[in-house]
Design brief:
Structural class: alpha+beta
Number of helices: 19
Largest sheet: 9 strands, mixed
Shape: globular
Distance between the termini: 29 Å
Number of domains: 4
Length: 604
C-alpha cells in the first residue's frame, strides 16, 4: 500500500466498524476541473460503488482536484484516470485508496487495508485502469488498445476446430507481438496489490483510455496468444520474463478459486500463504515491503484471523523486520518445514536497508528476482506437501525471537568458487549464431574453472565423472525429455559431441535445438554461483550475492534442500539455499542424515 503525504481534514472513521469512505465524482466534460466529495458508508450495508485498481505514480508529480470543496492533490496518473472515469451526465461513485483512506493515519490505514479484500469483492465492478491509450515506442508496436482488446476477444473465442490456416492474418504477427508485449509491460502489471484487486471480483474490466474489455477474457486471451508469440519474437529468451507477471496472475486466480469458500485449518492457511509467497516473490513491486504479506492476506480464507493470533495484523506502525520475522515464525511453526527459509530476499545486503534494519539473516522477505530454479522446486514440494512429510524439523527460537536454533549436519566447507552467473555478466545479449558462440565460450570457461578445483579428487576418480557432476549441478538432472535435451545441447556446445558424425537432416534439427537451448540459458541460468566443497561435492547457490571460502553447506531435518551458512564467532549467518545433485531428493537427504551426529546451529 503506497504511502501519501496528502494533508486533508478527514473525519475519522469509527474504529471496529465496517465504515469506509467513497468518492462521488460529479458529472463534467473531460477538460473541466474534477469536482468530487466524500461519503462515509458502512460496508455491511452493501452500498453501490465501483473500486479502482491503478498505479499511483510518482508522488512528486501531482495535480489538484476539488474534494468537499477543498483543493486536494492527487498523482498525475490518478488525475488522468478520474477524467476518463467521470461521466458527463450523472455522478459516479468509486472507492479509491489514495483518496478514501487517510494515508497520514497509520492506524486507519492498517484497518482499511485489512478490509480491502472485502471492499473489492463487494464492489459492483472493479475498474482496472492501466493508463492512456498511448503506444510505447520502445517496442515499436502500432496497435492501439481497442485493436488489442478486439484481437484478444477473437483469439479467445475462435473455434479451435476450424481450419484457419488458409486465412490471411488480420494483423502482422510481429506487430501484434510487439503491441501486446508493450501493453503488458505497463506499470500496472508489476504492482503487488493487483493480485488481490484483480481476482477478488468476477465482474472486473480492464480500461485503457476509452477502450475497455472484461478482465478474465483479457487474461486468458493473453495466455492463448503466448504460443503464437514464441514464433514471432526474436528475443524469445526474454519472453518468459516479459509475460511472467500475466501468467502469475492466472496462477493466483486459479489458486484463489481453489481456496474460495473453504474452511481451512491453521496449517492449511500457512501452506496457502507459503505457496503464494513463492509464486509471487520478486515478481511484483510495492513501495512498502510489508505489503508483500498484507497484499495477499485477503486471498486465503481465514488468514486474517490466523495471522492476528500470531501478532500479524495489518499494522503499518510495526517495523518491517518484525513483521517478516513473525511471518517466518508462523510458517515454520505451523508447517514444521524449513523450506520457507529459501524465500527470496535473504541476502545480507538487506541489512543496510533502513526499512529492514535489524532483520535476522534467516528471515526471508520474499523480494528477490524470481528467475532461479530452486523456488519452483520448493513450490512444487509445498503444493504437494512433500516438504512436510519429510523428517520433522528440529528448531527453537530465542526469547527475543531473533535467533533461530536449527539442528542439522555439515556436508562440507566451500573450498573453491566458480564464476558468478548473473544477468550483467551475460551482457550484451546476442542472438543467432553469434549468441551460440558466446554461450559456447561461457560454458567452457565456467566448466574449466570448476574442474580445476583440487577438492574434486576427494570424490571423483576421473575428470569425466567430475564433468558429469558439474553438468548436473548447472542444468540439474536428466529426469525428463527437456532436461536430457539440455544436457545433450550442452555437450554439443562444449565440444563433447561431434555434429559432423550425423546426417544433414538430423544436424539441422540439432542446430535448432541448440538455438532453443541458448534462448533458455539467457533467463534460466542467471542468479547462480557455482562452488566446490572440501568433500568434492559440486553445488550451485541461487539468489546468494556473495560466497566465501570456508562457508558451510548444511543439511537439516525438515528441509528438502541444503542451506549455506557463514560462521560468525559462536553463531552463523544464513546465506541461502543451494542445489546439489547428491541431495536433490528426500531419500538422498535422509540417507545422508542417517547415523550422523546432529549439531545445533544458532542463526542470527
Amino acid at each position: 500500500m503506497e504511502n501519501s503525504l496528502q494533508s486533508f481534514p478527514y473525519k475519522s472513521l469509527a474504529k471496529g466498524t465496517s465504515e469506509i469512505r467513497l468518492i462521488i465524482l460529479e458529472p463534467g466534460d473531460f477538460e473541466e476541473p474534477v469536482r468530487s466529495h466524500l461519503q462515509v458508508v458502512k460496508l455491511d450495508h452493501r452500498p453501490d460503488y465501483e473500486a479502482l485498481s491503478y498505479v499511483w505514480g510518482s508522488c512528486d508529480d501531482r495535480k489538484s482536484i476539488s474534494l468537499n470543496g477543498m483543493e486536494f492533490a492527487v498523482t498525475t496518473n490518478l488525475f488522468i484516470a478520474l477524467r476518463y472515469l467521470r461521466r458527463q451526465d450523472k455522478p459516479r461513485t468509486v472507492w479509491i485508496d489514495a483518496v478514501c483512506i487517510n494515508q497520514a493515519d497509520a492506524s486507519e490505514r492498517g484497518e482499511q487495508v485489512a478490509r480491502m479484500g472485502d471492499i473489492y469483492r463487494q464492489a459492483t465492478k472493479v475498474v482496472i485502469w492501466v493508463g492512456e491509450d498511448i503506444m510505447d515506442p520502445t517496442w515499436k508496436g502500432s496497435m492501439c488498445a481497442s485493436q488489442i482488446f478486439s484481437h484478444l476477444h477473437d483469439l479467445l473465442y475462435i473455434d479451435d476446430t476450424e481450419d484457419c490456416s488458409q486465412e490471411e492474418p488480420l494483423f502482422d504477427p510481429r506487430d501484434w507481438t510487439r503491441s501486446l508485449v508493450a501493453f503488458v509491460r505497463r506499470p500496472w502489471f508489476s504492482r503487488m496489490w493487483i493480485i488481490q484487486e484483480s481476482i477478488a471480483h468476477v465482474d472486473a474490466e480492464i480500461m485503457c483510455g476509452r477502450a475497455s474489455m472484461p478482465w478474465l477474457p483479457f487474461l486468458f486471451g493473453v495466455e492463448k496468444s503466448v504460443e503464437a508469440m514464441r514464433l514471432t519474437v526474436h528475443a524469445s529468451s526474454m519472453l518468459n520474463e516479459i509475460m511472467s507477471n500475466v501468467m502469475t496472475l492466472q496462477t493466483s486466480l486459479i489458486n484463489w478459486y481453489e481456496w474460495k469458500g473453504k474452511s481451512l485449518n491453521t496449517k492449511e492457511i500457512a501452506t496457502c500463504l507459503a505457496r503464494l509467497l513463492f509464486i509471487l516473490g520478486g515478481r511484483f513491486d510495492c513501495s512498502d515491503p510489508r505489503d508483500r504479506l498484507y497484499a495477499i492476506v485477503g486471498l486465503v480464507p481465514g488468514a486474517t484471523g490466523a495471522l492476528a493470533s500470531a501478532n500479524l495484523c495489518v499494522d503499518y506502525t510495526r517495523p518491517p523486520a518484525d513483521v517478516f520475522r513473525d511471518l517466518a515464525i508462523f510458517l515454520l511453526t505451523e508447517r514444521s518445514s524449513l523450506d520457507i527459509l529459501a524465500g527470496y530476499g535473504v541476502g545480507p545486503e538487506e541489512w543496510d536497508s533502513d526499512a529492514l534494519d535489524g532483520k535476522p539473516s534467516w528471515v526471508p522477505t520474499w523480494g528477490r528476482n524470481p528467475e532461479s530454479t530452486i523456488p519452483p522446486i520448493l513450490l512444487d514440494r509445498i503444493t504437494n506437501e512433500t516438504d512436510v512429510n519429510c523428517q520433522s524439523a528440529e528448531f527453537r527460537f530465542s526469547d527475543d525471537k531473533n535467533t533461530l536454533f536449527l539442528r542439522g549436519v555439515t556436508v562440507g566447507e566451500i573450498a573453491s568458487l566458480g564464476e558468478e552467473i548473473n544477468f550483467q555478466s551475460l551482457l550484451p545479449l546476442k542472438f543467432g549464431q553469434e549468441g551460440v558462440r558466446a554461450w559456447e565460450g561461457r560454458f567452457r570457461r565456467w566448466e574449466q574453472r570448476i574442474l580445476q578445483s583440487p577438492a574434486l579428487k576427494q570424490k571423483y576418480e576421473s575428470s569425466k565423472d567430475a564433468r558429469t557432476a558439474w553438468k548436473h549441478a548447472l542444468l540439474h538432472g536428466e529426469d525428463d525429455g527437456v532436461l536430457k535435451t539440455q544436457h545433450f545441447c550442452y555437450d554439443v556446445m562444449t565440444g563433447n559431441f561431434d555434429l559432423s558424425t550425423v546426417g544433414e537432416e538430423y544436424r539441422q534439427l540439432l542446430v535448432k535445438e541448440v538455438a532453443d537451448f541458448v534462448s533458455f540459458a539467457q533467463y534460466g541460468l542467471v542468479n547462480k554461483l557455482p562452488f566446490v566443497l572440501s568433500t568434492g561435492n559440486i553445488g550451485i547457490a541461487e539468489g546468494v550475492d556473495h560466497l566465501e571460502i570456508g562457508d558451510l553447506v548444511c543439511v537439516f531435518p525438515g528441509a528438502t534442500i541444503p542451506f549455506i551458512l557463514r560462521p560468525l564467532d559462536d553463531c552463523y549467518i544464513f546465506l541461502g539455499a543451494c542445489y546439489m545433485q547428491d541431495f536433490v531428493t528426500q531419500d538422498k537427504l535422509s540417507d545422508f542424515l542417517t547415523g550422523k551426529d546432529i549439531t545445533e546451529f544458532a542463526l542470527v
